[in-house]
């Protein structure tokens, strides 16, 4: 049923509303934000419930290209300062910050209709706004072949 409603919403609209939510975490602290004017309690993919705080969220999708960088830019309202302190401290300490964007259909707030996961690359904070640059998967900074073939782990690699 959800896929039919979602297909109709994407193609021609309907009476339902899509709610965008954003979870920002460094592993210990979690911030749950939703785009809109009212707080939203929804179910997570893990089966638990979460209360998302109302916040202005703007998302700029990446440009198409073959350079390997798929940067997404998020702008979050920072009027109450809840995100700014967290972002400043986490970016200063170089902690890994993860973001999860979830979309919910107003008639089914138990399960997300879309889940996208990002890693924060950098960001900046002003008095009214927090800018976050995140990406899906940074292919350019990954280790290839995934293993470091060194003599202590692979003794046959060393010429004697």
**How much of the residues is beta strand, in percent?**
35-45%
Proportion in helices: 10-25%
Question: Could you give the order of strands across the largest sheet?
Answer: 3-4-2-1-7-8-9-6-5
The structure class reads mainly beta
Sequence of secondary-structure elements? HEEEEEEHEEE
> Mind telling me the C-alpha Rg?
20 Å
Q: Quick check: average pLDDT?
A: 80
Q: Main sheet, how many strands, which sense, barrel?
A: 9 strands, mixed
Number of helices: 2
- Assign an overall shape: globular
Number of strands: 9
Q: Distance between the terminal alpha carbons, to the nearest Å?
A: 66 Å
Would you identify the regions where 5 or more consecutive residues have pLDDT less than 50?
A: none
Can you characterise this structure?
The chain is mainly beta. It is 14% helix and 39% strand. A 9-stranded mixed sheet has the order 3-4-2-1-7-8-9-6-5. The N and C termini lie far apart (66 Å).
Name the features:
9 strands, 14% helix, mainly beta, nine-stranded mixed beta sheet, globular, 160 residues
